[in-house]
Amino acid sequence: MRLGLAREVIDWSHALPHQRELLRHTWSSELEAGPTTEAVLGGWGSGKTYAQGMRYTLLALQAGWHEAYGSKRPQAIVVGPNLRLAVRNQLELIESLLPKGLIKQRWHMPQPRLLLQNGLEIHAISADSRYEGESLVLCWCDEIQHEVYSADPTLYTNLIARLRDPKARLRHPRMLVSGLPTAGFVRDTFDRDKDARLFLRLWASKQNTRLAEGIFAEIQKATPYGQEDVYLRGQWTQHPDALYPQYRAELHLVDDPGNRAQPVSIGIDVGNRSAVIIGQRRQVPGTAETRLHVVDEILGDGLSTDELVERFRRSGWLIQPGKSEICVDPTIRRDELGAIRRYYPSVQLLQRERTDQYYEVQTGVRLVQTALRNSSGHVRLTFARHLGMNRRGVIESLTALRFNSRTGGMVVDDLRDHPNDALRYLTCAVLGRTVAAPEVLRR
């Protein structure tokens, strides 16, 4: 296969079939101008990094300078978990793929970059450097599963926001992504079947038919038991001890930001890191059953109960006596309870008693698990899509919290526990009767 641009022709005949699909991909002419994402996630040795290097090189040759830039140059970047990896795994790969005649200049540390003959500058940067340079035409994030991205998802969203060069030759400035299909940040960000601006492929290690059998055997040896989907098969998976393995971004993050004219119910958890989870009832189509849809959340560190409730009051969501509920921690202090009642004296306030089945944390967790998805595949709990971008919020708690197999409870995580607790109080109130365990009577 030969992919050519005017006088610049590069031979990709060595590309494997799954890699050729990526190289040949084109975006619909009906898609509005703006950034698009091409993500290749796969097992070790599947050829994902090399393929994205080829794809990046091809796009770089289309993204050169023209008269509208004047004295400036179009800008592109490659991003690694650290600068050393960005240079070794990405910039040097691109340099090796380009014929020498297409590279005008090469700079090394401390600011490694390439200048192509077509005027495009390609900079290598570290993911945590928070790129604040000029608008970009092209970006490639490698090793997207690295903790530097999951620890602060805004690093990735900031890079997407930089793909906005109005002079770019590319109608769709491009974000390329490569890495492992891990649970948490990666799955939440890219497991979206209906996103018209996302091209996603999952590759298995064995799709790389040039991978020597001995190398594949070594990859198998290095793969933890139970993690074969991620490291070998290139498939989505949850953490083996995930507290909520039922959660999937494509099922539970929906394009429903909530209706400000409709009453809400809220779950409140007060502490050093407080949380208010705000939900509305939705009817399940074709049934009389209820779905809980979480429309918003309020998070705060070191807030008093008065400050937390005041922040919710200013959010503009409607609390209506007779239709709204305020659900609180069963162990909330009397003064904290009094602060809530001062703001909403006529609204039903739900605090579980010790005799209530949902007083126990494990029972509430099971209810949330069942609401997310039961064994029949029914979903009774969904979330507004924008919540997936919040750091330390309810979505991160669903993907990050772990089950402690030794104690049978949750692994304590003070950073993420509170949104989950508030969600549990709210879910028990709204869906407790809908998805509760049946009572089995003796005959």
Alpha-carbon Rg, integer: 25 Å
Intertermini distance: 73 Å
Count of runs of 4 or more consecutive helical residues = 14
Give the full name of the CATH homologous superfamily of the largest domain: P-loop containing nucleotide triphosphate hydrolases
Spatial sequence of strands, sheet with the most strands: 5-6-7-4-8-9-3-10
- The assigned structural class equals alpha/beta
Q: What is the total domain count?
A: 2
Gross morphology: elongated
Low-pLDDT regions: 1-8, 437-443
CATH fold descriptor of the largest domain: Rossmann fold
Quantity of strands, as a count = 17
What's the overall average pLDDT, rounded?
88
**Strand composition percent:** 15-25%
Helicity, as a percent range: 25-40%
Summarize the main sheet.
8 strands, mixed
Secondary-structure topology with pairs:
Layout lengths: L1 E4 L2 E4 L5 H8 L11 E7 L5 H15 L12 E6 L2 H15 L5 E5 L5 E4 L4 E6 L11 E4 L5 H5 L2 H8 L12 E6 L5 H6 L7 E6 L9 H10 L5 H6 L15 H4 E2 L10 E5 L3 E11 L6 E12 L3 H10 L10 E4 L5 H10 L4 E4 L9 H12 L8 E4 L9 H7 L16 H15 L12
Parallel strand pairs: 3-9, 3-10, 4-7, 4-8, 8-9, 11-17, 12-15, 14-17, 15-16
Antiparallel strand pairs: 1-2, 5-6, 6-7, 12-13, 13-14
Helix pairs in contact: 1-2, 2-3, 10-11, 12-14
